[in-house]
Amino acid sequence: MLKKILITGAAGFLGSHLCDRFIKEGYKVIGMDNLLTGNIDNIAHLFPLKEFEYYHHDVSKFVHVPGQLDYILHFASPASPIDYLKMPIQTLKVGSLGTHNLLGLAKQKQARILIASTSEVYGDPLEHPQKETYWGNVNPVGPRGVYDEAKRFQEAITMAYHTYHKLEVRIVRIFNTYGPRMRVDDGRVIPAFFSQAIRGEELTIFGDGSQTRSFCYVDDQVEGIFRLLHSNYSQPVNIGNPIEISIGDFAEEVLAMVGNPEAGIKYVDLPIDDPKQRQPDITLAKEILDWEPQVERSDGMARVFEYFKTVVK
Ligand code: UDP
């Protein structure tokens, strides 16, 4: 019998790539989404397959899946700062009530569950690079708190189910990841800069551009998640690319790659609580998963540029 996996947030950027990967690996995949920020086009190519089923559902309500279930990947949540600022209550609910429902389902089915956590649990980090042992610097009542605290609660309740119910759990802390199927208007820096550069607009650098991020190509991220699910490690693991760049330098890279002479740069206000630096320490992932990123930024950027050329109007 084929192994069966439920993937929530299946129509989202990461969720849809995970659906593809698990189908390719010979699993039966149930993709669940409420399309709040997901896009059905991301999984439309899977609909003809008998190994794929789609359930339109909001996981913050009771989740029912008939029959056997071996694995759950919980990837449903608004994930870009402008999305979770627009939808603060839904963001809190999917991370808290949604996670609770899926943990309950995992317990009932005796399934292993992997939850998508985030580098945002480290907040505006005072330790650099960030190791899994760092507890973070989060403003609970700031605008980003709705996402950061939902994900922190998600980790806490997941560990509680592991400790008290002996549930098999995996926790991935995802650092900035990019690739095809990112929503053009999701407000994150990569879709924003590419769409502005392609349209010949000014790239909007928030603040003075000295803040840093470390960008991981989606194929590397999916490989890390796949390995973590099949590992025997139940504590959080960072998955991300440790190569760090300032947002100002990154804007220059995008301008050079797109090569549109009409594009330029403008500086706008830095959002409240925007982390000043972010870089994963991936020592743990290397040790326990034998994983490290394979795709260089120049290569990943070239691939995502091809995608943005087809979707930016
Ligand atoms: N950013 C920017 N211009 C934009 C969008 C984002 O300068 O149009 C900056 C943002 O302030 C942050 C970084 O790029 O420092 C990454 O932002 P993103 O929204 O992609 O994700 P975050 O890492 O903050 O969750």
Short description:
This protein is of the alpha/beta class and 313 residues long.
Query: Order of strands side by side in the largest beta sheet?
Result: 3-2-1-4-5-6-11
Q: In CATH terms, what is the architecture of the largest domain?
A: 3-Layer(aba) Sandwich
How many structural domains? Answer: 2
Major β-sheet, in short?
7 strands, parallel
Q: Quick one: overall form?
A: globular
CATH superfamily of the largest domain: NAD(P)-binding Rossmann-like Domain
User: Which ranges are low-confidence, i.e. pLDDT below 50, for 5 or more consecutive residues?
Assistant: none
Please report the distance between the alpha carbons of the first and last residues. 45 Å
| Helix content estimate | 25-40%
The CATH topology of the largest domain is what? Rossmann fold
C-alpha-based Rg, rounded = 19 Å
Q: How many beta strands in the DSSP annotation?
A: 13
Global structural class = alpha/beta
Bound molecules: uridine-5'-diphosphate
Determine the number of helices (DSSP H or I, runs of at least 4 residues).
9
CATH class of the largest domain: Alpha Beta
- Mean residue pLDDT: 98
How would you spell out the order of helices and strands? EHEEEHHEHEEHEEEHEEHEHH
